[in-house]
């Protein structure tokens, strides 16, 4: 079987999506894929036609990062003819799951993955919704209130963090998603 040239591009706010993309890349490389990982805030990508699989990821609070949205919009036509996968990382699913709010998790999946794919007319092999992180930066008074409310929810649920940093990522879930993606792409080849 030929090596599948794979591009993973992402937008991140705090770096969690970067680490998620790196972990996905490791799984694909271990499966024999040739993988290139690009942080869209730091570099651009040309020659998408040279890749067999393109994975696009983004950190999400209320929406995808600007860089990831721009990548999708600018490359829409090329991506429509490629094998693709989308993933997001967000701090919200862990909180919502702990609160028993599965409907809102499904709403996040629909809004940020299914609708994003549909808007771009993509038919991805996989959609990944991963737990991300919460980091509470110093911000203006409105932002402080919003972050304070989220932080109170997190602490009320009993999550432990360090210095207002909460990492909810589940590396086993991320690795399993990547292994399933490998399987789906190979079955289609």
Q: Strand fraction band?
A: 15-25%
Identify the strand order in the major beta sheet. Answer: 2-1-3-4-5
Number of strands: 7
Main sheet overview? 5 strands, parallel
Average of the residue pLDDT scores: 93
Q: Oligomer, anyone?
A: single chain
Number of helices: 7
Rg from alpha-carbon coordinates: 17 Å
How is this structure best described in words?
The protein is of the alpha/beta class and 189 residues long. It folds into 2 domains: 148 residues, 3-Layer(aba) Sandwich (Rossmann fold); 31 residues, no CATH class. Helices cover 47% and strands 21% of the residues. It is built from 7 helices and 7 strands.
Structure at a glance:
By secondary structure, the protein is of the alpha/beta class. It has helices at 16-30, 66-74, 76-80, 92-98, 102-119, 141-156, 171-188, and strands at residues 5-11, 34-39, 53-59, 83-90, 126-131, 133-135, 165-167.
How do the helices and strands line up, and which of them pair or pack?
Elements: E1 5-11, H1 16-30, E2 34-39, E3 53-59, H2 66-74, H3 76-80, E4 83-90, H4 92-98, H5 102-119, E5 126-131, E6 133-135, H6 141-156, E7 165-167, H7 171-188
Parallel strand pairs: 1-2, 1-3, 3-4, 4-5
Antiparallel strand pairs: 6-7
Helix pairs in contact: 1-7, 4-5
């Amino acid at each position: 079987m030929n090596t599948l040239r794979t591009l993973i591009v992402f937008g991140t706010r705090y770096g969690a999506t970067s680490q998620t993309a790196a972990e996905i890349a490791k799984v694909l490389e271990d499966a024999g894929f040739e993988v290139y990982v690009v942080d869209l805030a730091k570099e651009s990508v040309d020659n998408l036609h040279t890749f067999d699989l393109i994975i696009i990821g983004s950190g999400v609070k209320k929406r995808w990062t600007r860089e990831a949205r721009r990548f999708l919009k600018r490359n829409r036509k090329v991506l429509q003819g490629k094998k693709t996968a989308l993933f997001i990382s967000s701090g919200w699913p862990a909180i919502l799951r702990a609160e028993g709010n599965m409907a809102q998790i499904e709403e996040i999946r629909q809004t940020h993955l299914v609708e994003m794919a549909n808007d771009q007319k993509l038919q991805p092999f996989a959609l990944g919704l991963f737990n991300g992180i919460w980091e509470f930066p110093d911000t203006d008074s409105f932002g402080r209130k919003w972050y304070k409310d989220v932080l109170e929810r997190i602490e009320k649920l009993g999550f432990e963090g360090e210095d207002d940093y909460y990492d909810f990522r589940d590396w086993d879930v991320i690795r399993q998603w990547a292994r399933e993606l490998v399987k789906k792409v190979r079955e289609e080849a």
